Amino acid sequence: MLPTSVIGLIIAVFVLIFLVLRTRVHVLIAMLIAACIAGLIGGLSVDDTMSAISSGFGGTLGGIGIVIGLGVMMGAILETSGAGESIAYHFIKWLGKKKEETALAITGYIVSIPVFVDSALIILFPIAKSLAKTSNRSILTLTVALAGGLVVAHHCIPPTPGPLGVASIFGVDIASMLGLGLLVALPSVCGIVLYARWLENHFPEYMTPPSLTNETNDLRKVHDDYMASKESKNLPSLTYSIMPIVVPILLILINSLVGLAETQFGLEGLSQSALGATIKFLGNPMVALSISTLLAIYTLTPYLDKETTTNKLEEGISTAGIILLVTGAGGALGGVLRESGAGAEIANQIAAMSISPIMIPFIIATLVRVIQGSGTVSMITAASISAPVLAEIQGVNMLFAASAATMGSLFAGYFNDSLFHIVNRLMGVTEVRKQLIIWTIPTTIAWSIGGALIMTLNLLIGTHGSWFDPVIPLLFLAGCCYFVKSQNRLRAQEVLLHKSV
Question: Does the record carry Transmembrane as a key word (predicted)?
Answer without folding.
Answer: yes
